[in-house]
Amino acid sequence: MNIFRLFGDLSHLAAIIILLLKIWKSRSCAGISGKSQILFAIVFTTRYLDLLTSFISLYNTSMKMIYIGCSYATVYLIYAKFRATYDGNHDSFRVEFLIVPVGGLAVLINHDFSLLEILWTFSIYLESVAILPQLFMISKTGEAETITTHYLFCQGLYRALYLINWIWRFYFEGFFDMIAIVAGVVQTILYCDFFYLYVTKVLKGKKLSLPA
Amino acid sequence: EEEAKPKDEL
């Protein structure tokens, strides 16, 4: 475990908790894409099935359980507890356009043609695009609450730190996983436009709003 | 061909 990986995980955890707290404290999920959150719940569920088959470390097991638990809690808050505040009309991204191609790709390109491995691959591919409904929603409404942008920044930072972690691991451990790396690059690229807006607007104290 | 190894990353 190197420092980039650790801070990547912590950034990921921060993103998840920021979102949960935002919804809980404001008693509202306005501006949050429930579809993206369902996709993340699917991502964690299909990726961490190895909780049942192999033990890696206490850190690994506990982080996986926290990620899964928080993602289901978020989905519950959006679709049950604070459903009245859910902005379904603006959350109109067609997720089947993500799930179907990603599922097909996972069956075609994987490390091993076994159920667990295909589901893991599916989760890696799906994670790389799972934020799209959220970004689509922001582009539709033209704005995002500042706390939502902090969430997105932590999500993007997590993937960027993982990229540095993989460069590190390649040089010092000879480790690389092409599927994870390609998907991670795609995922990070999706955040670049947002990073730019975050730095030029949100960090200067302005609300994130897109030009009409 | 890569063998399936435990995934230590999250």
Automatic annotation (TrEMBL), chain A:
- Give the CC-aspect GO terms: COPI-coated vesicle membrane; endoplasmic reticulum membrane; Golgi membrane
TM region(s), chain numbering: 65-82, 94-113, 119-138, 150-168, 174-199
Main location group: membrane
Which GO biological process categories is it annotated with? protein retention in ER lumen; protein transport; vesicle-mediated transport
Entry's localization field = Cytoplasmic vesicle, COPI-coated vesicle membrane; Endoplasmic reticulum membrane; Golgi apparatus membrane
Q: How does it sit in the membrane?
A: Multi-pass membrane protein
What keywords are assigned to this protein?
Cytoplasmic vesicle, Endoplasmic reticulum, ER-Golgi transport, Membrane, Protein transport, Receptor, Transmembrane, Transmembrane helix, Transport
Q: Which GO terms describe its molecular function?
A: ER retention sequence binding
**Please, which domain of life does this record's source organism belong to?**
Eukaryota
Q: Report the InterPro entries cross-referenced here.
A: ER_ret_rcpt
UniProt family annotation:
Belongs to the ERD2 family.
Q: What is this protein called?
A: ER lumen protein-retaining receptor
Originating gene: LOC114440483
